[in-house]
Structures are given as C-alpha cells and as structure tokens.
Amino acid sequence: MTCKSSDTMESQKAHTTLGEYLINQLYSLNVHHIFGIPGDYVLGFYDQLTKSKIKIINTCDEQSAGFAADAYARVRGLGAVCVTYCVGGLKIVNSTAEAYAEKSPVVVISGAPGLPEKKKTPLLHHRVRDFNTQRDIFSNVTIASTILDNPEDAPAEIERVLSAAIRHKMPVYIELPRDNVYKIISNPRICSVPEFNSDAAVIREALQEAVSMINSAQLPVVVAGVEVQRFGLQELLLKFLQKTNIPVVSTPLSKSVINELHRSYLGVYEGAMGYPHVRNYVESSDCVLLIGTFMTDIDFGNSPTPVEQGKTINITSSKLSIKHHNYENVEMRDFLEKLNNVDLRKRNIDTSLKREGILALQQRPSNRDKITVDGLFGKLNDFLTPDYMVIADVGDALFGGLDLVIHKGTEFLSPAYYLSMGFAIPASIGAQLANPAIRPIVLVGDGAFQMTGTELSTIAREKLNPIIILLNNDGYRTERTILDGPFNDLYSWDYSKIVELLKVGVSFDVNSNREFESALEKAKENGREFVLINVHLDRFDASAALKRLTESLSKKVR
Amino acid sequence: MTCKSSDTMESQKAHTTLGEYLINQLYSLNVHHIFGIPGDYVLGFYDQLTKSKIKIINTCDEQSAGFAADAYARVRGLGAVCVTYCVGGLKIVNSTAEAYAEKSPVVVISGAPGLPEKKKTPLLHHRVRDFNTQRDIFSNVTIASTILDNPEDAPAEIERVLSAAIRHKMPVYIELPRDNVYKIISNPRICSVPEFNSDAAVIREALQEAVSMINSAQLPVVVAGVEVQRFGLQELLLKFLQKTNIPVVSTPLSKSVINELHRSYLGVYEGAMGYPHVRNYVESSDCVLLIGTFMTDIDFGNSPTPVEQGKTINITSSKLSIKHHNYENVEMRDFLEKLNNVDLRKRNIDTSLKREGILALQQRPSNRDKITVDGLFGKLNDFLTPDYMVIADVGDALFGGLDLVIHKGTEFLSPAYYLSMGFAIPASIGAQLANPAIRPIVLVGDGAFQMTGTELSTIAREKLNPIIILLNNDGYRTERTILDGPFNDLYSWDYSKIVELLKVGVSFDVNSNREFESALEKAKENGREFVLINVHLDRFDASAALKRLTESLSKKVR
C-alpha cells in the first residue's frame, strides 16, 4: 500500500478511533467478513465491528475461524480472523502456520490487556510467560507483526503490516490493547495497494536467457503453481499459453489455477502419485517453466525421477532461477508481461495427451455396485459444473479429488502442502462468503469430520448451503497403508444424525453408486440448506492416487 | 531425576531403541496413558507405544488431547500428549500455554521428519518457516525442550527435559525425528526423581522472621495455592493447620487443595467475587501466609482492597518473600517442614466464620420452580459425595462451581487462571483415566460445549462415565454482562441429540429443579456410560459470583 493524507480512497472520518480506523482499512481492502470468537480483551473491538460494514462470523471454535479466514483470503485476496488474547490466539497458531506455508494473506487480529492494567496487575488472566508471549509465537508464522500500543504510530504500523500481507501473500499479526481501540487517530492515512518494480537490467538479461531456452526446447512445459492464483496472474498465464501453445500442468496445491478443460492443460503433476502421462511429460521435458511453484515433497518429491534443475526456468515471488543461477529483483508479473511481448515460437498442440487423462476418468463401475472411492469420484466428476467449487480436506478427499476435472479457475481449494486435517468444512464457510455465487462441495474424511464437523452449526447460522461428501471408512485411511494399528481406527459416529443435533440440514446415508447419484441430485435441488452425504466406503478402499502416494511414503517411515 | 547406569529403577533392555527408552522413562514416572492423534511423522513411535505398557488414547482433535494430558498431569503428577509434526503440534500450543500458566507438567512429544529427508527435500509437507519453527514456538510455552537428533545424547537430553517438568511442574517439549525412534540406545541411564535442598542459613533467617510474624499476629490466615497440590504438600499443610488452628482459604485455581469440610477452612478467597466473610477475613488479616499461590487478577486482582504486601509471607516454588524482601534458595517443602518443627502459638477456632459460608449455600429455591443457576448449584452441592470429582469449564460453570463444597482433596479441577474455554470435557477424560476411582462431574457452558463437546466420542470409546452438566443459556453469558452484542449469541443445538450422533450415552433435558434432581439420581444409578444433563437456563440468569465478577470486569473494557 501507499498511504497519503489525501482522499485517493475512502476518506477517514475526522474523529476516527483506532479500532474504526483498522476496520475501515480492512474493508477498503475487500475484507467484508471477519471470523472469530469474542473474549473480554477484544469485546470493545467486536462492538466496533458490529457497528461497521464488516460482518462478524462467529464460529464454534477459534481453530475453525482461522481455517475460514484462510479460505476467504485464498478466494478474495485478503482475509481476517479476530480473537481474544492467548486463549483465542493460541488456538489458531496452526491455521496461521498453514496460511504461512501455503501463502494465504490472513490478518490475525487479537485483543490484549490494556497498558495500565498490565502495569498494575502482572498476572492478568490468559497470560502465559509474559505479555509478549503471543506475539513472539506469531512472529514464527507471520511475515510481519505489530502491537498497536501507541495510537500515534498506529496508522503507519497498520500500513506496514497490511502491506506485507498483500505484498507477500502471507499472514500477519496485529495485537490490539483493549484500551487503545477507543483512542482517536489524529493522523489517519489513506492507503492503496503498492506496486513493486523489477530491476530493468536484471530482467533484460534474464528474459534473453529464458527466451532462448524456451524457443530452442523440443518439449517445453509450464508448471503453473499456486502463486499464479495468489498474485492474480491467471490472465497473463493464459495469454502466454495462447501465444506459444506450450502444454501446461498444475500441482496439487495449485489445482484449478487454470480451467482444466483448457486445450493446453495436461493435468495435475503429482510426481509418482499422478497420471503417468502427465508425470512422463514433465519429467522428460527439456525446458520446464515453473511459475509460482513451490518444490514440495507432495508436489514433486515423491517422484523417484523429479524435474532436473538444469532444465528449469523457475520464477516465484521471491526469486527467479534459470538452471542453477539466480536473478534477484524480478517480479513475476513483470517477467510474464515481458515474456508476452517478445517473439516466442508457436507450437502445434498434441491433443492425444489430454485425451488420455479424460479417458482414465471414464472407467467407472456401474450403478448397481457397492460404492467405491473411484466410483464416488467418477460420479462426482460427471456432476460438476461451473456452479460448484470443490474444497478438499486431507487424505483421499484430496488425493482422489485431484482427479476431478475443474471447469473454471480457482474452484478447487485444499491444504495440499501443509496438509492440516479439519480444514475443509470451516474453509467452505470462508469460501462461500468470499464468493456467494458458487456453491461449495466439501470432500472430507471421517477423521477430519470429527475434528471440525460441528462447524455445520456456523454454516446453519449463516444460512450457507454446501454439499458435504463424507468419505466414511472408519479411520485414518492414508495412514493405514503406511503403518496400521488400532491408533488409526475411529470411534464410529452415526454422522447423518448431526442434522438432528443442529436442527437443520439434510443428510443421506449412501452405500451404492445409485444412492450416491440420487443424493447428489437431491442436494442439487435443495439449495436452501447444507446437505450431508455420508458415503459408507470399505475400510481399505482407496483411490489409485492414494495407493501410489502411500506406497511411496511407507518407504520413509523407517 | 538422578540417573545412573545401575538398576535403582526398572532396568532398560540391552537393545533398547530410542522410542522404547522414552516410553520406559515415561512409564516409570507414572505415565500410563498418552493422548493424541497419529500422523505419518509419528507413526513409528505410535507403533512402539502400541507394543508397550502405555495405552494410547485417541481423541477427535489434537486440542482435546492437550487438555486431557493437562488434566492427567494435574491428577497424577505427569502427563503426556503425542502428536505429529506442526499440523498436530501447532494445534496444542494453547493447551500447552495453559499448562505453563497453571503449572501442569505435560510432556509434549512430537514426531518430525527424519534427518536424511530434511536434507534431501527442504519443502517436506507440514513444514512452516523452517524445520525449527515448531520447537521455536514451543520454547515460549515450555520450561525445557529438545530435539532428539542424536541417539548418543538422547538419554541425557530426556533426563534433562523430564527433570525440568518434574522439578518445576511445567510443560516440556520433546521432538522425535522419525528415523531416530528406531536407533539403538547404547548408554541407557536409570533415572529417579531428584531432590532439591534449601540453603540452610537462608532458611534459618527466614524462618525466624516468619515465626515471629505468625506468633505475634492477631488474625493470621493461610492462603493455600495451587502449588500445594502440584508439589504434593497437602499433608504438611494439614499438619501446620492442626498445630496452629490458623484459618485457611483456597483460591479459584487451588480450590479443593484441602477438604472443604476441614474445621479450619473458611472458603475460596476470590477478591470481589467471593463470599464477603472470606474476603473480609483475608483482607483485614495482619499476617497472610501465602503458600504456593499466584497473585492473579482472578484470584486477587478484582478486589478493590487486595492483600497488602507488607502483611504477607509468600512462599512459592520460585521464591520466598516476607513483606517486601525476598529470600532465594528456599524450597517450599523444607520451609513447611521446618515450620512444623518449631514452636508456634495454638489458637482457638472461631466456628462462626465457617457456618456463615455453609448457610449461604442452603438458601435455595423449591422443587417446583424453573431451574436457576443458583438452584442448580444448590442441588448439585447436596448431591456431591467423595465419589465424585468436579471439573469446571470457563464461565458460570467455574464461578458458580466455586461455591460447591468439595469433600476431599483435589476433587475440583478448572483452568481458573488461564481460563481457556473447551477444557472441561476433554479434561474429564484425562482425569478419570488418571484416577479411575472417582467419577467426574463436568460443568460446562454451551459455548465451551460447542468447542470440544464431541470428545464425548472419546469418552464413549474409552467406556468412561462422566456426568456432563450443560449450563445452556444460548450464549457467552460471562461476556453479556461486560459488553453484549449479537457476537455473544450462539446458534442453538439440540444438545441431547448428541447421544444419537455417537450411538451411546444417555441425555436429559431439564427445565425445573425437580427434573434436575431426578436426572442426577438417574445418572448416579447409571454408571455404565456418560450422562448428559442439558439444563435450560434463562439467557440472563447468573450466579451471584459471576454477577460480582462481571461487574468488576466491565469497568475495564474501556
């Protein structure tokens, strides 16, 4: 952000309090919902929020507020979670770590004791080691943090921290001493999102080298990573693909960064767990253009023959590497824009590559059979339209979900690198509020459902209508293949009864493909409330992708 | 602990692996259950646990495993929680902070990537900023931490860390790289709990001063704090009371540290929110002997006329202060033992003081009325016997619960200082496994129930039988008095239906005192499973203690 004293954005009132000022800044940055649970150190700020244009979304537990804010940030560009001191804040360290690991700009706002009371009573309730403990902890999982203990500095501090969130697409931490939220801001600043520019000489040299590599390559391929979505580079990517006809793949973390029906799209590259034709194409390529991709074990590492660095052009938000050398001060956006403005060889598209992937999805069992994981994903794939967004929790919900064909951009959300269980149901709240035009389909295992499934309560409270597909197989299925034992078993719930506990929603128990198909159709007709489809799967059934992944992981336990 | 190569304790096998070694150490320190959820980085250790004498208790979410281990530690002297790297560990930062704030020796054990894989693939799944992030975070909420990356050092490191937990009654952190759990320990050590001794000259001088103050006081009083329980000093305290007839009070955090029917016991000192006769006695005393007490705002700070330091003898595990000066190197145990061996004036007991408190509890409404918070606690007080332990969550569950008369020592558990909601139901799992002889009665508000109530699943799985009393008043009642708004409302569940979701347990919906009494009787008769009593309270009803507390807190919001 750049900030001035003028009125380039919504002007601040003359007698704005610190709390109102922060609220106005967030609202002007597209944050229209905030997730959390109040507590006495943050009640004053909650009261200010109630009187503002930002809507508070109360979740059942703070952890879910963190996950919801993360999803909101992924869909909308910025999200916020607001909690009380320590007993609230320390419940969302994990969800903030997830946002850090997967580049999601979440603003963590925490109430805190006021300055006079800290001096008067050192042992205030909720305190841990000292009054800085919570901020010290969050400094490990955020890119910037501040304690707004001085109203004079607050506008500059808010600017610094929110700028960092937007610049790096990473979480940040703002602590609000409760007495200060009522202090008047004497020097309000009007902020706008900042622009960052590359070093012209560096980008010229890098571009020349990249163009030469791309044009001389026999089998170039683009790996479109999650930063393409986070930094809003989809249009530039599409232009590049149009211009060159180079095939493109996504990764588990970036799945749906591009419409999967795009003629240049081959599929998800997942190393050893993906479709062989995608893996072979990427790993035999002589020029791999990695755009905004993290080289994670899930995305790359579980392949015994991963991408060779000497064949890569790798641009991320932090640096550009070509082969084994690095260029600093090159912005992804600038690089892609420049690439689209130079001469690049246009190739012919080999449509046979795409057909292979689509054929694989059509090999599904008949309607009379007991439902299987493969059958479930086959039916769901037929059901999907651009009206739906898929949100996958960890496990076969994710690995099976990666085979689905997503019709538009950014319609598949999952914690595919950090892999924290319990994400999907709370995330559907954030995603649907961030974009009410599309209905979430949540894929969740029974293990993850037992963690955060009660957030269907929040879904009911906010009158949202996700379709929850519960992959019910009595345990932590992914772990069973790696190393099984009674610790992988779950106590079995009658999950469908949750609609009676919550007094709203519809549920179906599903055992066959036909029942599943029928439940999906009924869910489609019922847009008024959430629909839970409890799919009873065999305890050891798994998707092909999961079987390949767990086989690879099991070699690493010892 | 002191450790030798001989066999003063259970001897270690010749070919013990690092994982087995840690398990044996924990078991010999009375840890017979461990709480957690497995993940791929900790599966090998879970497999070793399965083959050991320690029983794994799987919870639904890691947060609850943290709370359960905390309660286990409070009842049994040491507890342990075992989780996977980051996605498990970072979910229990809050429960570990609670253990830190309230002095509960919880051993946090986390799996982690193996050393070779960390070198080979920097972006392994679950990683946050770097491979030390989790340990850096836990260093803020533990007294000692270690990463067992070297099997040679492991026995000494385990000794150092477990010793610190036992010495300070604080949480500690042990990280297990997954490849190392299978490494053979070549130098096993045999450990026993250490003894610490005071400085003789210091204790002599301090004792002389303390004895003079105590003997010359007109109205001395003992405030027995939570460290009396944590450090096992109850017998020494009783001996001192017997010897002197000085009246004694507890605090919210230490409630039940002494049998509340003891003839010297006046009640819980809670500053402005307690019974006036207790408050007046303590605040007008000319010699307040604080033993193992933290001077927290909840315990002391909300009184406008708190204890004057110039009239105190204050001994804790970290130091001894008399009036405004400090003595170092004085152990609480040594000091109490010495105090019991010198001449101290024996006083007469003023029984009128005690009667006043008991009378207050008997002023209860009749059986025909709609149930009120006061009525609930009155009936429950009549119902209590030494066969029950009370575990209170945050809110009126706690504040009302403080009025109950507890019949034996250590039968009232709550996070009365850190005040983290969602503690009580998971804590009942830890408490009952730590001491199967007494049945937990859980007091929980609807807000806290929505956070961790699904752990009734774990209760069912382990065939435990707590009685859950749900104070159902449609919101965060404590906050309503401070500053109310729609953010204090909860989405209403039909809580009784949870027994259908979980396919086990019994539930009652209660609207009148008579129904409550009847439900309690049925719960008493049914010892086979959990019983949930859903008590429908008026939205604005509150205990007298809560009314006094919230009035005091509301002055601090601005």
Task: Looking at this protein, list some descriptive labels.
homodimer; 558 residues; alpha/beta; Rossmann fold; 3 domains; seven-stranded mixed sheet; six-stranded parallel sheet; 23 helices; 38% helix; 17% strand; globular
Please provide a written account of the structure.
The structure is a homodimer of 558-residue chains. With 558 residues, chain A is of the alpha/beta class. Chain A has 3 domains: 2-192, Thiamin diphosphate (ThDP)-binding fold, Pyr/PP domains (Rossmann fold), CATH 3.40.50; 200-354, 3-Layer(aba) Sandwich (Rossmann fold), CATH 3.40.50; 364-545, Rossmann fold, CATH 3.40.50.970. Helix content of chain A is 38%, strand content 17%. The first copy, chain A, is built from 23 helices and 21 strands. In chain A, the strands form 4 sheets. In chain A, strands 11-10-9-12-13-14-15 form a 7-stranded mixed beta sheet, sandwiched between helices. The first copy, chain A, has a 6-stranded parallel beta sheet with strand order 3-2-4-5-7-6, with helices on both faces. A 6-stranded parallel beta sheet of chain A has the order 17-16-18-19-21-20, sandwiched between helices. In chain A, helix 3 runs parallel beside helix 4, helix 3 crosses helix 17 and helix 10 (234-244) packs parallel to helix 13. The N and C termini of chain A lie far apart (49 Å). Mean pLDDT of chain A is 90; it is low at 5-11. At the A-B interface, helix 2, helix 4, helix 6, helix 12 and helix 18 of A face helix 2, helix 4, helix 6, helix 12 and helix 18 of B.
